[in-house]
Amino acid sequence: MARLLALVTLLATSVTVFAQQPSTHQVNPDGSITFRYDDRSATKVALTIDALPKPLPLTRDENGLWSVTTAALPPEIYGYTFVVDGTPRLDPYNSDVRPNYVSFSNNVMVPSTPPAPWELTAIPHGRVDHHIYTTHIVKNLPENQNAYVVYTPPGYDAKRKGGYPVLYLLHGWSDNETGWTAVGHADLILDSLIASGKAMPMIVVMPLGYGDLSFVNSGFAVWKDDAKVDENLTLYSQALETEVIPAVEHEYNVAAGRNHHAIAGLSMGGLESLTIGLNHPDQFAYVGGMSSALEGRHFDEHIPGLDAKKANLSLLWVACGTTDHLIAPNREFITWAKTKGFDVTTVETPGAHTWLTWRDNLGNFAPLLFRSK
Asked: Which residues form the signal peptide (predicted)?
């Protein structure tokens, strides 16, 4: 919690200090983006953007205005941050800030023609609800208040016979329960897929993904501590199974039976979804992982007694970007799962450990759900 408070203070300081220094971005017709930053006292300004592997230096004109224009970029939503004399700074004139416990950045979109699924368009839209409840399992949450976000599809009918299938969609380390909607635009992606008939109308549940909030507040080095990783995963699994799922099934018209239930996630959420899903095939017939944080995992230890025939999954789907640092452990997991008899749907696409990859993953994963074998 202390790290989160420090981050909030840093964001406020960034906006206050630079409020009088105009900074803007301009998306050009060819898809390139021009960034400007006005700070006459700065000696070095760079731009970090998740479209590029390295920071991009800005140049200063005679008036002290720093600027740079990227190469033409594919249509996407990009996160960016200015680095001023070694210190990260938000763009104070861009209110679109990504929610995160550890880092911060602004969003900028290069639009697509026709619009990409994550763009706002004039189609029927679902509803997004934010729920807060008292947890008896998750550690170190302020006042023990846990949270989850629920998407219901356009035309959702609380009394529809048979209910709706449900996807539990888990975020990554450093994000919170709003990550998949605020940054991933999962709601708009589902709206688009449902409107085009590519995906079944479904409920999507996006919980806060920690069993112990100190797991994210302790810094990235926590991933080197196997005991901490295991504890976080165990507590989170318990909270999902005994608190979140029962609450969702009480509050929403969820279809009964494993064939109507799916679980998937990215990075830390991929580790959680693969572990929970494969340990509970009686609850989930569809299991997916995106850039899953599987490094150093002992699969037989954490998913014991796994057998494909007994699990009888409709889909085991594993995706990762080819330039992601987690590509090797994901390939190892796929090989291991195949030794257990699974027919793994494997997806490798160009891309790193970023939302550019995960939005695309969701757009390809959701249409596969809740179809007949």
From this structure: 1-19
